[in-house]
Amino acid sequence: MSGTAYTAAELAERFGLGLRGDGAARVRGVATLAQAGAEQLAFLANPKYRAQLADSRAGVVVLREDDAAAHAGTALVARDPYAAFARIAALFEPRPRRAPGIHPSADIDPSAQVDPGAHVGAFVSIGARSRIEAGAVVGPGCVIGEDCVVGAGCELVARVTLVTRVRLGRRVTIHPGAVLGAAGFGLAMEHGRWLNVPQLGGVVVGDDCEIGANTTIDRGALDDTVLEEDVRLDNQIQIGHNVRIGAHTAMAGCSAVAGSAKIGRYCLIGGAAGVLGHLEICDKVVVTAMSLVTHSIREPGEYSSGTPLMDNRSWRKSAARFKQLDAIARRLGARGAD
Amino acid sequence: MSGTAYTAAELAERFGLGLRGDGAARVRGVATLAQAGAEQLAFLANPKYRAQLADSRAGVVVLREDDAAAHAGTALVARDPYAAFARIAALFEPRPRRAPGIHPSADIDPSAQVDPGAHVGAFVSIGARSRIEAGAVVGPGCVIGEDCVVGAGCELVARVTLVTRVRLGRRVTIHPGAVLGAAGFGLAMEHGRWLNVPQLGGVVVGDDCEIGANTTIDRGALDDTVLEEDVRLDNQIQIGHNVRIGAHTAMAGCSAVAGSAKIGRYCLIGGAAGVLGHLEICDKVVVTAMSLVTHSIREPGEYSSGTPLMDNRSWRKSAARFKQLDAIARRLGARGAD
Amino acid sequence: MSGTAYTAAELAERFGLGLRGDGAARVRGVATLAQAGAEQLAFLANPKYRAQLADSRAGVVVLREDDAAAHAGTALVARDPYAAFARIAALFEPRPRRAPGIHPSADIDPSAQVDPGAHVGAFVSIGARSRIEAGAVVGPGCVIGEDCVVGAGCELVARVTLVTRVRLGRRVTIHPGAVLGAAGFGLAMEHGRWLNVPQLGGVVVGDDCEIGANTTIDRGALDDTVLEEDVRLDNQIQIGHNVRIGAHTAMAGCSAVAGSAKIGRYCLIGGAAGVLGHLEICDKVVVTAMSLVTHSIREPGEYSSGTPLMDNRSWRKSAARFKQLDAIARRLGARGAD
């Protein structure tokens, strides 16, 4: 409730929003509809929460035109309330200062270059020939191996590892525990033992990408593993060697893409979904949670696999019948059916 | 076989167990039924291992009343042999000493508070305004960001990251590689590019929770992400922003909960199971391994999805028929069936 | 294109390969068929890429006898082109030098032993009674707890944690973020609260194993968790306490094995596949991606579960019918079918 305040009129002006009600209403922070108080701003985007609007004590609410009519209080009207809220909320986000400079404990190879405008935190290692550009933040405990680039304005929050040959564009954010550039899973069987196939490529990450906590992206075997610009990866994701992910694609937590698969632009990959190796998925494909992509997808649209959740007793019956499905269909004379 | 010894009678007395056989039998350690020797104690809880009892060379066995009759050797009789065994085994657990004090290499912000009775290990970073309470252990390589609290008696084993606004209750154990308080996956699409939604909340973890290796728990967008007391999370779990998990719920490895879902008390979530966002699961729900919860659950019980494991050739036939299921059912005139 | 060059004839001789075309052709590096230039060597193993052979500008191609006939350029003929390529590519792999010695920042318990021929990097912790053998590399940020052994020639790339009682054989490679030896998920419910079951065992990893980034392997409860020799684990894998994995088995990313399961030799476990606890899988079993093994497997072969990927609209129809399967089958009089 402390800090800078903005009036509703100022926010409307600044973000190009419609204003209903009291333009002098002051906003000192943001909160949910359920929790917001008199000097806080809330938003209504998901119709599921519409019922909360009437009871909300929020001083100002960001909402759509058609919800504004039903709202007696001060409102900011947006075509996309969630995006408008995101921009307003950023005004109130506490950002720890990361002053330029290198922490005295950092261990930096003499051949590495760190821009004077970059921040390098405690217990950071930077390997031979790597480069940290202006305004980049390399948080505590990060390990940057050989031949890496951390582009201008990147933020490696803490304990991020770039193993080798990882080139990040500008403004890439990487959350703790992520590992980029580890040797991909390349194995050949020879005389009954596994032989490692050298992983000579790197990882290229485009501008404005975000990579979640404990996500892993292997380096390519020969060519690079590539994320185009503005790709958003949640936590605990696994990206195999030589995968390519198109611009603006977002993947939810625990999803995984096997080696050499290509995913298009503006795709949405659900949580814990999987994509087999060497497949291609075109632009604007949605894969629902925990689905497994087993063949290439050439048409935009939504794709799924799996079965619905059931009580275990009923599920056991259906599951037992699943094993008999071919026999059942044959009995019906369905051989030729599609 | 070295170290402290206890007699069977001492153990019976100490843990309130029944005694059969030789109360003077000495116990110097614990082992499985198959491996235990004359001065070791074993247990029988899972009937699957009952056949091992006859051949066991264990000096003392903890078991249920109805198994005791069949056992000629010394036995401690418990209503819950596994719990009794757990308490006895703790007597023999080697616990590395973590002396109070701060390792000289640790990097601690001047505004942070570390209780003199806490242990802070090598290469630890502690950020502004964070507090480490009495008896807490912060193992090597941990990163504690801004505005965090590590409650009395907590143990962060090693390389744990608390990003920001993470408040741990008392006696919380966190295993290596876990990341709490990373920015949740909040995105709005605006003019064809992703816009980050500020993640202003924190993470609150109740007393006696345990969080597994490489598990991730994102901080809330506005309100906090919450684990109530005695929640047990295995390894590699992903908990999205604003999730709430009820007291005494246990989740097995690789499970995942998407943003804003609420899970009740005393639930058991199986390995690699998933829960979609914004759902509610009531108390005492069991979700079996690799099931996907796609709707709220309002009745206690066991729930499942998926299909049974089959040899691949048979599975291919059933899978092909799964695609024809609606046509098959229509042919049967099953339209109205439930 | 710099560095050492080899002639095709030299490579044929060195690796026992057949030679077609110009034995004097020089090779300075390796690349894909699509990318390789005149002084680079490519390979053709997967028939899917056969069409690229005609257009390839690669100076030398490693391929099978039956592909050699169709190729006008210089070729090295191998029974297994992928394995041959792996051996050749290793000649060109840049390997960062890790000189023997201990980084001055490392924090090593007085009772630990580090062989003078081992490399210990920056910000490494090594606990009481642990031993690092000759030629081993312990990269930056690793944490080695108490009573661990890192065998001769092992490489812990960076930020690897061995919690306690982890014994690695020789030439084990572990990628960043992996955690071995954390306490397994052993819980007993007592009076409505969880009680921890002490995890007194360790982890034993055989010679030549490889463990992927952010993979977790819990220590055993009483006996050890065991990987036999030459086991290959990809990234983000979870191995529960007391699991045993047979020699030469490979597991793809995000797969998981619950406690006390036993997996045989020469098995291939697909990505995101799961194995329930206490099961046994015999040798030479293939489990396809995202399948769940719910019973022991006693016959070699390929096993699967799940349903095929469908467009969401069609999938919803099949999924709804899955719930009716038992009723459908009963209507057909299929009660006795298998």
List key phrases describing it.
alpha/beta, 11-stranded parallel beta sheet, Udp-n-acetylmuramoylalanyl-d-glutamate--2,6- Diaminopimelate Ligase, Chain: A, domain 1, 13% helix, 338 residues, UDP N-Acetylglucosamine Acyltransferase, domain 1, homotrimer
Description of the structure:
The structure is a homotrimer of 338-residue chains. Chain A is an alpha/beta fold. Chain A contains six helices and 40 strands. In chain A, the strands form seven sheets. In chain A, strands 8-11-14-17-20-25-28-31-34-37-39 form an eleven-stranded parallel beta sheet, with no helix packed on it. Chain A has a ten-stranded parallel beta sheet with strand order 9-12-15-18-21-26-29-32-35-38, with no helix packed on it. A six-stranded parallel beta sheet of chain A has the order 19-24-27-30-33-36, with no helix packed on it. In chain A, strand 5, helix 2 (51-55) and strand 6 (60-63) form a beta-alpha-beta unit. The termini of chain A are far apart. The model of chain A is unreliable at 334-338 (pLDDT under 50). At the B-C interface, helix 4, strand 40, helix 5 and helix 6 of B face strand 15, strand 18, strand 22, strand 23 and strand 38 of C.
